[in-house]
Write a structure and sequence with these properties.
Layout lengths: L28 H11 L6 H13 L1 E4 L7 H12 L13 E4 L4 H8 L5 E6 L9 H13 L4 E5 L2 H6 L2 H13 L5 E5 L8 H13 L4 E3 L11 H18 L4 E5 L5 H15 L9 E5 L2 H14 L5 H4 L3
Parallel strand pairs: 1-2, 1-8, 2-3, 3-4, 4-5, 5-6, 6-7, 7-8
């Protein structure tokens, strides 16, 4: 486990079968989409852009989730996480390294004593179509092997059919077996069809004990989008107002450029305020985003672009 202090208050998993009544959640799709687009057109001055790049970099969950992942690949990823650019001392480490559970011990050893967290995907990632008992064992093993955070996949059939009680029970059970680790619940929002359903899924996840609600696995056709992220940020804001507990938000899938990352940071700032512009409350799951953040930072600092090969490292 990395030496970063816990950033959420302890949450006791709710008992099963006690899903609180859902509030009336009706999302204005047109207004939400227009608001997300308007915030994406905000101009950013150079000094603000530099700070935004640093913040975005510090929020990245640097990810490798391929069948060909090896211990050596994870070690290289950990070194990149700790030092995104060897020749730029002003850049922070990323928030976490996100990997499959069997490689957690490798990352744990590499990152021990650092601020970079070890995050494991579990519970039958990416489809989540395994029995709950398997999901529990997968989650427990990841934590026992050193994971600080666990990204879990809820049974997508339950989400798609609106079986909120089953979704709640599954998340609550996995939260109970997370121990000290923080639980991020993947909603696979691109498959849910409406923002109303996204909002309901996010609210249920929060009620069941999630520390973060996460958009996507990154393994489907539609992953994170600004309107979806805005919808989830609104839920996190409203949940805190009503229930008194802060929830983090993680976006993932297809986020590759600094411009996109800065757009999301504007959404966070305008919805939750500057207090949430920290990796304690916002994360970006990505594999290649770090490359462009480093390139754009160097361009802003030194006035010239680096070749992609100069900054991309495995």
């Amino acid at each position: 486990m990395a030496s970063q202090p816990s950033y959420h208050s302890e949450v006791v998993a709710p008992s099963m079968n006690d899903l609180p009544p859902l509030p009336s959640l009706s999302v204005d799709e047109v207004g939400l989409t227009a608001r997300a687009a308007e915030l994406g057109r905000r101009s950013i001055k150079k000094a603000t852009k530099l700070e935004g790049i640093r913040r975005a970099l510090s929020m990245v969950d640097l990810t490798t989730l391929e069948g060909a992942d090896t211990p050596d690949r994870v070690r290289r990823l950990c070194r990149r996480a700790l030092q995104p650019a060897a020749d730029e001392a002003g850049l922070p480490p990323v928030a976490a390294v996100c990997i499959y559970p069997r490689l957690v011990p490798v990352a744990y050893k590499e990152l021990l004593g650092s601020p970079v967290q070890v995050c494991a995907v579990a519970s039958g990632f990416p489809a989540g179509q395994v029995p709950l008992s398997v999901k529990i064992e997968d989650t427990r093993a990841a934590v026992e092997n050193g994971a600080d955070e666990v990204d879990i996949v809820v049974a997508r059939g339950s989400l798609l059919s609106g079986d909120w009680q089953r979704v709640f029970d599954e998340i609550a059970a996995l939260k109970e077996h997370c121990g000290r680790a923080h639980l991020k619940v993947i909603l696979e929002t691109g498959e849910l069809g409406t923002f109303d359903k996204v909002a309901h899924a996010a609210w249920v996840a929060c009620s069941a004990g999630a520390d973060f609600i996460k958009t996507s696995t990154g393994k489907v056709a539609v992953n994170s989008t600004p309107p979806t992220a805005l919808c989830m940020l609104n839920v996190a804001r409203d949940y805190e107002r009503e229930r008194g507990r802060r929830i983090g938000v993680k976006i993932a899938g297809g986020i590759r450029t600094s411009k996109e990352a800065l757009h999301y940071l504007v959404l966070v700032n305008e919805t939750l305020g500057p207090r949430s512009l920290t990796n304690k409350w916002f994360r970006i799951g990505a594999s290649s985003l770090v490359n462009d953040l480093v390139r754009q930072y160097k361009k802003a600092m030194h006035g010239t672009y680096q070749c992609a090969d100069d900054v991309v490292t495995d």
